[in-house]
Amino acid sequence: MSTTHKKRKAGSRRAEIIDKATDLFLENGFSGTSMAELAKACQMQKASLYYHFKTKEELFAACITEGHACSLDTLETISRDEDAPPAERLRAAIANLYQINVDSKVGRMSPLIAEVSRAIPSVAKRFHQDFMVKEQSLLEKIIDDGVAEGAFRRIDPPTLRYMIVGPIITLSLAREMFATFDNLDQECPADHIRQHHIEQILRLLAKDGLSADREA
Amino acid sequence: MSTTHKKRKAGSRRAEIIDKATDLFLENGFSGTSMAELAKACQMQKASLYYHFKTKEELFAACITEGHACSLDTLETISRDEDAPPAERLRAAIANLYQINVDSKVGRMSPLIAEVSRAIPSVAKRFHQDFMVKEQSLLEKIIDDGVAEGAFRRIDPPTLRYMIVGPIITLSLAREMFATFDNLDQECPADHIRQHHIEQILRLLAKDGLSADREA
DNA sequence: GTCTATACAGTGATAGAC
DNA sequence: GTCTATCACTGTATAGAC
C-alpha cells in the first residue's frame, strides 16, 4: 500500500483487466478494441497492461478461458441429479442454457471467436474444448438418462443438440447483430422464445400419443 | 482499351472488388482486413480502391447489400408455388435455407455484422431489412399456407422460425468458429444435420397421430 | 506494479500526374 | 481509372525510471 502509485483493490488487478477487456471485445470486436482504449477503461497506462499480459492475443485468450469458466456449474448440478423427473431436468437445463448463452458474457462470445479463429486458432480450440464440449456432454447425459428411463423418445443426438442449442445461439447472435435497434426486444423476443422453445423440444421428445398436452 | 494502364475485364471492376473484399472480410473480419491487403488481392493500388468506394465502411456496406442480394430467388419461387404439397414445399424451403446460410457467402456474414453493428449500425439495419426480414416472411408464408390447408399443426410463429433457422445459423456460425479444425466436418456435420433437422420440423408440424412415420 | 516516453510498422485516406 | 507518393494518425509493443 505504500510503494505503488495507484493500487485500487487488493490483489487481482488482472481480473479487472479481463473483465473490462471482455466488455470492450464484446462491444467492438477484437481488432476493433485498442489497448489504449482498454487502458483508459481500466484507468491505467497502456504500458501497464503489458505487465499483466505479454500480448493482446494472450489477453484475449485469458478473457475466453479464465474469465468465465465457472459458468457450467448449474448445468453440472442438473446433470448429476439423476433422481429428478427427466422433463423437469431438461426444462431446467435448457433454461440454464439460455442464461449461459444469452444473458452471460461467455455465451455471447461466439461471434468474437469466429472473428479471430483464423488469426488465433488456439483460442477457438480452447473455447471448444473448455466450453462447448462440456456444455454438450452435460446436456447429452440428461437426455440419455431420460431415454434410458423410457420417458423420452430416442432422437439422433447431433440433430437434437442443434435443435436445442441452435435457437439459443441464434438468439444470442441476433441480439449482438441488432444491438443498436430501438426495438431489439421486439425483433429478438428473448423471453418469448425462451419460454416456448422448450415446449417444442419436449413435444419432440414425447412418445407418440403423449404429445397433445399443449397448444401454442 | 488504349488510354488506361491495366484494364482486366470490361466494365465492372467494382464487382471484382466487392467479391474479393467479401472473401477477406469473411476470413479476417472487418477491422482485420486492410485496404492494402485488399488492393493486393485485386492486383491494383490502394488508392484505386478509393476511386470506387469513398470509405472502407462504404465498401463493406456494398459487400452486404449489393454483393449477394439475389440469393432469395429460389426461396421466392418455392414460396409462390402454392399448388405443391406443403411438406414438399417446406422441405425444399429448408434445403434452400441451408444453401443460403451455410454454403453461400451472404449467410456466413452474420458474425461480421455482429462485429461492426455498433460501429456501423446502418449496415445491420440494411442486412436485417434486405435479407433477414425477406427470408423470414417467405418462410412464414409457406408454413401459413400449410396450416391453412390443414396439413400443418399451428405453432407459435417466432418459436417455429427460430427452431427452423436456429440450427442452420448455428451450424454456419460453428463452421466459421472452427474453420481451422482438421476435423471440421466431424465437429460440424453439415450434411448430417441438414438431412435430419427437416424431419424433426415436419414431426413438429404433423398433426397428432401422424407423427409416427419415421424414427431417427 | 505502474509510470513516462518512444519506437516504428501499419492504418485509412488524399493529391496530383498520366 | 489507375498510378506514385505521401499524409496524419493509430496500432502494438518496449525501455527504463520510480
Count of runs of 4 or more consecutive helical residues of chain A: 11
Structural class of chain A: mainly alpha
General form of chain A: elongated
Order of helices and strands of chain A: HHHHHHHHHHH
Oligomer: homodimer
- Mean pLDDT value of chain A: 91
Radius of gyration of chain A equals 21 Å
Give the total of beta strands of chain A.
0
Q: Which percent range fits the helix content of chain A?
A: 55-70%
Low-confidence stretches of chain A: 1-11, 211-216
* Largest interface, C-beta within 8 A: A-B, 57 and 57 residues
Can you give a write-up of this model?
The structure is a homodimer of 216-residue chains. Chain A is mainly alpha-helical and 216 residues long. In chain A, α2 packs across α3 and α6 packs parallel to α9. The first copy, chain A, has 11 helices and no strands. Chain A has helices at 13-28, 35-41, 46-52, 56-65, 73-80, 86-103, 110-116, 121-148, 157-177, 184-187, 190-205. Chain A binds a DNA duplex (18 and 18 nucleotides) through α3.
Features:
DNA-binding; 216 residues; homodimer; 11 helices; 66% helix; mainly alpha; disordered C terminus
Can you summarize this structure?
The structure is a homodimer of 216-residue chains. Chain A has eleven helices and no strands. Chain A is mainly alpha-helical.
Give me the secondary-structure topology.
The structure is a homodimer of 216-residue chains.
Chain A: H1 13-28, H2 35-41, H3 46-52, H4 56-65, H5 73-80, H6 86-103, H7 110-116, H8 121-148, H9 157-177, H10 184-187, H11 190-205
The structure holds a DNA duplex (18 and 18 nucleotides).
